[in-house]
Every structure is written in structure tokens, then in C-alpha cells.
Amino acid sequence: MRVPGLRSSEKKLGQLKAVFHDKEAWQKMDPETIVYQVWSWEPVPAGTEGGLFWGGTEIQPGCVGNEYFMTHGHRHAIVNRAEFYGTTVGQGKLVLRDESGRVWSEEMKPGSLHYIPGRVAHRVVNTGGVPLRFVACWPSDAGHDYEIAGGKGLGARVLQRNGEPVFEIIPDAVA
Ligand code: S6P
Ligand code: ZN
Questions:
Q1: In a mutational test of the pocket of ligand 1, which residue from 57, 72, 83, 114 has the highest number of ligand atoms less than 8 Å from its CB?
Q2: Which of 3, 92, 104, 160 is within CB 3.0–4.6 Å of 108 for a Cys-Cys bond?
């Protein structure tokens, strides 16, 4: 049976140069490496007010230099639109940034549920050794804005230090 509105996409390392800080390490890696895949069910056309989309993301384990694999990160194009994330498999961090430039993170583990308020940019980082999977539910008119903070990004990084994930604020990227 064909279900209308099912979509899937993948993001490869070659498409993610802008998000990793160690460009030298990035250059040495295979650009065809899949960093994450997204599946979504969009039962109404994108942009429809009042509908909901459902999706799943799987982020592979890995690092570019000492920075863990992660999603690009975005804010919603209609900025006041909120979203739920729910973790099903793996370990990670949800990195969040509000409009005042405040940046924080939430631990992701199987069963963790995360409410992402409107106006808050969001990115997921896989800090574990297995694929990190989470589901998401967001309004069908939310859209995506990938130019977070005028291209400065989220203002924080999750780095591997002595084998452990460390959440670090980048001072000059915070408004
Ligand atoms: C959509 C939702 C997720 C992400 C996905 C990939 O609002 O937040 O489905 O799109 O996790 O992340 P990104 O930053 O590449 O869109
Ligand atoms: Zn979103």
C-alpha cells in the first residue's frame, strides 16, 4: 500500500562542512559518509496551517576531529512553532539556543521526551557508540530556517574530551 506524504532524505559529511569546527579533520574524511537520515510522514502539504508532521532521525556514531556527528540544526521558519522530540535508541545531547543567545543542552536517552518551544533553535548530537534514533512531531506550517543566528550557528559545541562528551559554549558566537 502506498502511503501518501512519506519522505526520506540523508545528510552526508560533504554537505556538513559549515557545522564542524575542525575543517582539516573534515577534509580528510570521505564526503560520502552518511551522518544522518530522516524519515517523515507529511499527511498534509508543507505549509498547511493546523496539521502535524511526524518524523524519525537516525544519526550515526562518529566524530570529525573531536566533535561528535550531529544534525545541521535549525529554527522553524515560522519562529513561534514548537516541536516534540522523543529518543528511542542511543545516547546524545539536544542543543538548544533561544533568541537572547542563551544556549543549553538536554540529555537524550531511550525514553527521554523533549519539548522544544517556539523561537528555539535545535540540533541533536550523537555522543554514543551506536546510532542515535529519535522521533519528532512538529506543525505542518513550521518550515525550517538553517541560517541560525545569522550564520553563527548555535553557539555551543559537544566535544569528546578523554572519551567523554563535554558541552562547551563558544563565547564569541553567543549574542
Ligand atoms: C523537523 C525536525 C527533524 C529534523 C531532523 C534533521 O522540524 O526537527 O525532523 O529536521 O532531525 O535535522 P536538520 O537540522 O538537518 O533539519
Ligand atoms: Zn525542528
A1: 57
A2: 92
Q: Domain tally for the chain?
A: 1
Q: Which residue has the cell 532521525?
A: 57
Give a yes or no: residue 107 inside a domain.
yes
- The whole domain housing 104 covers 6-169
> What's the pLDDT tens digit per position in 109-143?
999 999 999 999 999 999 999 999 999 999 999 99
Report which ligand 1 atom has the smallest distance to the Cα of 138: 7
CB-facing half-sphere around the CA of 23: CA atoms within 13 A: 2
CATH number of the domain encompassing residue 57: 2.60.120.10
Q: Is residue 174 situated within a structural domain?
A: no
